[in-house]
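**Tokenised fold:**
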Amino acid sequence: MDGNSGSEVGTAVSIDLRGGESAVDLTGQIHQLPCCIKYDGPCSVSHYFKPKSTGVEVDGLSMKEAHFRGRKLQGTTIPLPQGYSGFVIGKKSSDKRKASDMSEEKPNNWEMNAKFKDITYWNHDSLPSQDDAFLRSFHWFTIAEALHKPVADEDLKSASITQELL
């Protein structure tokens, strides 16, 4: 068997994050709702969805309250970790692509439409807390940084000495 079964081994993807200062800043407007909305299109969300601060703080998190389709939601806004940014991306329209990109049979080009620095996540049955799976997932940023940080020569020497002593 030659290892080529007729399917693509990989797909080239390009994501253009050069929106710079012209990109729409959605900080304070990104929400993680505890539901699935089967609609993708324009809607005057701010006319119907009006979060407000409750003045209550739980686990160091400032609580907000809103209602969606008659259900009370309780949420909190959390900043993205230092060094991270959030992006809203969309498929690049064909008229914006370069001539060199047109030669691809199935272009997979994306571009940044907006950016954000925080996200508000909502619960409908309980107050947000540090124990929520959504907040706990942010711990992976610290773990990933520790795993991928370059190891210094001093760290290797120190580990070698410690290993020899055992």
